[in-house]
Design goal:
282 residues; 4 strands; mainly alpha; single chain; 11 helices; 3 domains; 57% helix; two-stranded antiparallel sheet
Length: 282
């Protein structure tokens, strides 16, 4: 039995080196299971929270029509997430990467693309233009702001559709597969040093930094491969988004715009419209 895994605080490089040196699959499993339990038991849990795009209307402007209109739109909320950790332990850093990937690819409540956030910032942008001297009509500005907020709802819905469906527990299972692949494919620092191929920036890093960086890069690559599998895209193919549902589709020479399902729905809709016009004409 490998005694080093009987206590917390092991260095990551020790875990990986012992994994690579293990002679039996049983030993490898024990080490890898210890690594995974350290990740999942980390205090660095995935957290999302409400954030707001806010501003304050100057007191001397509150009695004006524009001031009142802006005052009712000074706090636009959206969901955000904890994307960094102050804990420098390897388990917390790797867990943060795992948390971030889930939020970016699967959490449909956290939408942070610039297109969406720019629409939410419309009231604040117009307010600052107004107090900077821009001439504004209250009815026209109100209409533009309300249209932007309505548009933001449409954009959020579209961006939500671009995220995949997977529960946290299901995600943990595929992440462990990704991590196991990373362990199996990992090269030890000594292998680079023996071949004089170790990259110069490693001189400034500890062994744990090297392996943490490798694992995080591996997770990024694996989720992109998994995403292609999720949508049925061949590994060597480039992809784009379906304009209707947001799923990814293979890029083709004929500039394909829709996935197979949405393409069929579009064609059925087109034929129904043609048939309707034909009946009216008769």
């Amino acid at each position: 039995m490998i005694q080093i895994y009987d206590y917390d605080g092991s260095f990551l490089y020790e875990i990986i080196e012992d994994y690579k040196d293990s002679k039996t699959q049983e030993e490898k499993d024990k080490i890898f299971n210890f690594f995974c339990s350290s990740i999942w038991s980390s205090d660095n849990k995935r957290k999302t929270y409400t954030k707001s795009i806010g501003f304050h209307v100057r007191k001397d402007l509150l009695n004006t029509n524009l001031g009142q209109m802006f005052h009712t739109r000074t706090n636009i909320e959206y969901r955000y997430y904890k994307s960094k950790t102050k804990d420098e332990s390897w388990s917390s850093i790797v867990r943060q990467k795992i948390n971030n990937i889930y939020t970016i690819y699967f959490d449909k409540e956290v939408i942070l693309q610039k297109e969406y956030l720019d629409l939410l910032k419309t009231p604040k942008r117009f307010y600052h233009e107004w107090i900077s001297g821009a001439d504004m009509d209250v009815a026209a500005v109100t209409k533009l702001i309300d249209e932007s907020i309505a548009k933001s709802i449409e954009v959020k819905s579209r961006l939500q559709m671009e995220k995949m469906d997977l529960s946290w527990n299901e995600y943990k299972k595929i992440v462990e597969k990704f991590l196991r692949r990373a362990f199996d494919n990992c090269k030890l620092i000594g292998e680079y040093e023996d071949q004089s191929k170790i990259i110069s920036r490693l001189d400034f890093l500890t062994e744990d930094h090297f392996y943490v960086g490798y694992i995080c890069r591996s997770l990024e690559g694996e989720i992109l491969k998994w995403q292609k599998q999720y949508y049925g895209i061949r590994d060597h193919k480039k992809y784009t988004r379906c304009r209707q549902c947001g799923s990814i589709i293979e890029k083709t020479g004929n500039k394909r715009l829709y996935c197979t399902h949405c393409g069929k729905e579009k064609e059925r809709t087109r034929k129904r419209k043609i048939a309707h016009k034909y009946r009216i004409a008769k």
